[in-house]
Write a structure and sequence with these properties.
By secondary structure, the chain is an alpha/beta fold. Helices cover 41% and strands 11% of the residues. The protein is globular, with a radius of gyration of 13 Å.
């Protein structure tokens, strides 16, 4: 999924966006110097990859995590991180637990360079 594809899906409210980086990366208090800005994609909710990993594909646990973040059952989830590696693992773990999840490969590294 490209940044433009993600932007279009977000504009039409067709997906839920899940930031799987650390809390500090999500808040913009930590990050990588190669990115022009720090923070998160507007509208994203945070769920650290470590929590997803610890759930071990348990649908009930994953569902509770998503419910707590306002992501309804059946809604497609787009996961992102800094470079797409952590979010690829997160998407696979979510899928193993029955969640419709995909990875935004460009992740924050790409999104942080978008104008506007």
């Amino acid at each position: 999924m490209t940044g433009d594809e993600l932007a279009a899906l977000l504009e039409r409210d067709e997906v839920a966006l899940l930031d799987v980086r650390s809390q500090e990366e999500y808040e913009g208090t930590a990050g990588y110097p190669c990115d022009p800005v720090q923070g998160h994609i507007p509208g994203a909710v945070h769920l650290d990859l470590n929590e997803i990993y610890a759930a071990g594909g348990d649908h009930a646990v994953l569902r509770r995590f998503l419910d707590e973040r306002g992501i309804a059952e059946g809604r497609r989830v787009v996961a992102y991180c800094h470079s797409g590696q952590r979010s690829e693992l997160a998407a696979a773990l979510l899928r193993s637990g029955g969640v419709d999840a995909v990875n935004y490969e460009g992740s924050w590294h790409e999104w942080s360079r978008r104008s506007g």
